[in-house]
Amino acid sequence: MEYSLYRRKWITGQYQPKVAAYYYREWEDYHMKFHRHDQVEIMYAIKGKCTVETPDHSFSLSKGDLILLNAGKAHRLVVEEGSPCRMLNIEFQFAEKNNPCPSLQDLYQTVPGFRKLLSSAQPYILLKDPDEIYPSLKKLIMELDRKQRGQQEHNVMIQLLLCQILLDVARLNQDTQGRESLMGNIHIRKAVEYLHQHYDQDIKTNQLAAVLHIHEGYFYRIFRKCMGVTPNEYLTQLRMEKAKMLLAYTDIPIIEICGYVGINSRQYFSFLFKKHTNATPSQYRNLARKSEIPGN
Predict the structure, then answer these.
(1) For residue 161, what pLDDT is reported?
(2) Which one, of 134, 26, 32, lies nearest residue 86 by Cα?
(3) Residue 139 sits in the same domain as residue 208
(4) What is the torsional sign of CA 191, 196, 197, 201?
(5) What are the Cα distances from residue 276, in Å, to 46, 92, 199, 203, 269?
(6) Which end of the chain is less enclosed by CB atoms within 10 A, N or C?
(7) What sign does the dihedral 31-37-42-46 (CA atoms) show?
(8) Is residue 2 part of a domain?
(9) Mean pLDDT, consecutive 10-residue segments, the chain of 296 residues?
(10) Of 190, 210, 228, which one is at a domain's C-terminal end?
(11) How far, in Å, CA of 205 to CA of 219, rounded?
(12) In 39-103, which ranges are E strands?
């Protein structure tokens, strides 16, 4: 049976992904013959370079690249002599739901990016991983190995990781479409991740560009194009959202909140907060305690 990712059966019934095979392998001077799988395959380049060929396309992969090949798609791997490539391959199919984890139907109905992926019916998807998918793949392999040793309690974790990987692929695929370039999108993802992890610190645009090892002017331009706001505007919005959360759900003194969100001046923090919320920090806290703010 051919388990195409895009069969409508998977989203009209209660089905879940199920790993059929997985392995690490380091290849060198290898020219595989064209072949097909009944399962969907993810090929991830851990280090080195290789080429994945289909009858009508050729894809160059290097460290951090992955390609998802739909079931039944003819392909072959080519690795040149003197240039080894270490890869992780996972093949998965679909089976009737037998645990409390989400089904493909659940994901399709609730996650727009996943719905868009399944509607696209792409025979292959090439992505640059911003170090989000590989950690989940490694964790999945460990859980699968534990299950092989008879530890059946890992079934739920395996299913959750498979769902996470598919959602990450869908989101990354969506993010890379319609953007200036794949590399530019990766820079933006890394910048946003950095801001969310360091918003309590003094951050300048030139520091962000330096972290990403790109020119400040180029970074500013692609960030504004992709996000619709400047890096500083995004950071300010993020800080205000964090301040709203701290005011509504913690007892941290208002005079200390500014330090938690990376603003050194209490007066400037109050000015920004009122500009973004039409309320002073104290007014916002009082309203939140009275549940007069939507969502509280």
Answers:
(1) 96
(2) 26
(3) no
(4) positive
(5) 44, 47, 17, 20, 11
(6) N
(7) negative
(8) no
(9) 94 95 95 96 97 94 96 96 96 94 95 93 92 94 82 79 96 71 68 93 93 91 89 96 95 95 95 95 91 58
(10) 228
(11) 8
(12) 40-53, 58-62, 65-69, 76-79, 85-96
- Give the per-residue pLDDT at 271: 96
Range of the domain at 150: 9-175
Question: pLDDT tens, 22-34?
Answer: 999 999 999 999 9
1 is a domain residue: no
C-alpha span between 219 and 188 (Å, rounded): 8
CA 165 vs CA 107, 151, 160: distances in Å: 12, 22, 9
Amino acid at 211: V
Q: Based on the fold, state whether residues 83 and 186 are members of the same structural domain.
A: no
Element (H, E) at 22: strand 15-27
Closest by CA to 256, choosing from 271, 269, 245, is 269
Least Cα distance to 45 among 29, 23, 65 occurs for 65
Report residue 227 as tokens. 């996000």
Residues 88 and 211 both lie in one domain: no
pLDDT tens digit sequence for 165-217: 999 999 988 877 654 444 456 788 889 999 999 999 999 999 999 988 899 99
Residues 157 and 33 occupy one common structural domain: yes
| Total structural domains within the chain | 3
Using CB atoms within 10 Å of the CB of residue 133, give its burial: 0 to 12 exposed, 13 to 18 middle, 19+ buried.
buried
Greatest alpha-carbon span in the chain: 69
Q: What angle do CA 99, 103, 109 make, to 5 degrees?
A: 150
